[in-house]
Amino acid sequence: MAKETHIINIDHVSKSFGDKKVLDDISLYINKGEFITFLGPSGCGKTTLLRLIAGFLSPDEGVITLEGKDISPLPPHKRPLNTVFQRYALFPHLDVYDNIAFGLKLQKLPTEDINKRVKKVLKLVSMSDYEDRDVNSLSGGQQQRIAIARAIVNQPKVLLLDEPLSALDLKMRKDMQIELKEMHRKLGITFIYVTHDQEEALTLSDTIVVMNEGKIQQIGTPVDIYNEPVNCFVADFIGESNILKGRMMRDRRVAFIKHEFDCVDEGFGEDVPVDVVVRPEDIYFTTDPAKCQFTAKVNSCIFKGVHYEMWVDTDTGYELMIQDYDPYEVGSEVMLYIDPDDIQVMKKERTANTYAAKVIGEGKVEFLDTEFECDTAGFAEGDEAVATIRFEKVELLDYEEEADLTGNVVFILYMGNHYHLTVKTECGENIWVDTNDIWDKGDFVGIKIHPQSLQLSKPTE
Amino acid sequence: MGKRSAWALPYFIFLVLFVVLPLVLIGVYALTDADGRFTLANMGAFFTDPKIINSFLVSLEVALENTVICILVGYPVAYILADKSLNRSAVTAVLFILPMWINALMRTMATAEIFNVLGIGLGKGTLLFGMAYDYLPFMIYPIYNILDKMDKSYAEAAQDLGASPVKVFLKVTLPLSLPGVASGVMMVFMPTVSTFAVSEILTNNTIMLFGSVIQEQFNNLMWNQGAALSFIMLIIIGVTTLIPGNKNSETVEGGATV
Asked: Taken in order A284, A289, A290, A295, is the CA torsion positive or negative?
């Protein structure tokens, strides 16, 4: 099954800590020699996945194979992998030389060999002459290099890096990124890199695995991930973006912000709701009325170094972010257009909240561990049903008393003229809400669903 | 004196009254005879009286043995207490400290009584048992403390580099916990050299420790001789505290912080 180019295969791996499912049915393969990055916000499971590969944790379900062999029974010290730890974990009681030689000494190599290899690897990380230094006397960047040297001196088949640059300052981080890339090229071994920094991932990786809530969202090259995000989460997480509700009119024609645009996407069908992503650098200003697709008024303009970041209000009442090298005066009317190539159309993951429900009496239905009132005409007590609530019909309250149930806001997406919130209810299910009110991530909210906004239908087999 | 340093005044007075002054008095008594005249005879007795020299050597031996026993018993206990997978509750750690809440003399007498009931003759064995029982918490606690706070990524890094669990312990965990062992040794070895009541109760006065010798001098109102022996013991203890190098003391805390 494992092809020869695959060095690691992760097959339907799941892992829970207590009740919390940290990894949910993860499957992916890693090619020999590639630089692959697990990217996602904190708590997405990326570090857990790395620790499963390193052997510090074992999966609840699924198999991880290295070069075709199941490595589950191997303890970490028998795996031909080495890790660069987030906070380096250099042994404070050993000097630089002994830290690097640690693994080699355990292999009982002859002293001259150890000497030679330590010297070589120190040269590779540009830390020659530091052999006798106490590791505590080194700067963060230097400790980082020693941590990398200590790992690669053992010539692992795969190098695992757990947010290795997160403790460094920005300038240092940029320099180290270039060096890491160079090291990867020289060594030719597989690098598995974990980070929450999307820019770092885009800079370094051959392949990026975007993760969220224990699931893989998208796997692809940095260019693919940036230009063709598969869902709103990826579009929002990677780079800046305008994410908007749209409608696919027909092939190569999409409507959003109440205008119609040519695009390059096909196969969605006709008159289908979709999500649309337009990167802020892909909206162009023009003075040619023939090119103009819509007009807008500049609302704010901020200098960001390389470019200006502007927010504009379109003639149809949507807010868009635009990045351009030239500033436009706040309050001025501008003409805008978008290239068909630059419009990324995504299949809608869902168009409404739907839950498996149970009719528990006349006008009463239960789902999300909560009892709701609604019209149950056509259903008898005990019937299974599907409850549907449109996103905009869910009401969020900042008090509990009148709410049907409560939850926490876990994800916020600005859609040009409203917010699309993901609220995790107490029973662990998500409920999606469209609202004009401003909430913050983590807010505790009361959720109210009015009887008239709740539709029941027969479950489809 | 600045405004702030005035706050230190009460402590300063306390230190002078209860630490410096008694030490000076010990020195003065040690170097004078009963009539208050300067003499080195009291100090000389330590080196010339075989009974005193012997009891001192026995004390050192007992203290050494007690320390070794405490390390051998205390380290594994501390290790288990600090290991989250073996010990999930902080209460267990407290249970080991609990005996310290009871007066040492009472515990010692109770121990002796238990030996009597069991029909075990009092002697060196019972002395070492009682001492280890008394001083074990002082060994466990500093080691537990350092192991508990130790960044577990050190052990993981060692494992990752190919060290088996035994090697991880020998090459990383143990060396990094040595400062804890060192403070444990200080807290066990020094006080055991000078104990007196424990040895009397647990050996029926068959083993005379140095502390008991000093006490005997005072009981016989030989203040100057007693002070001289105390003075010598102070100097020896003072010197030994300097031996366990402080060079390791900052290693674990220092860690790989940025």
From this structure: positive
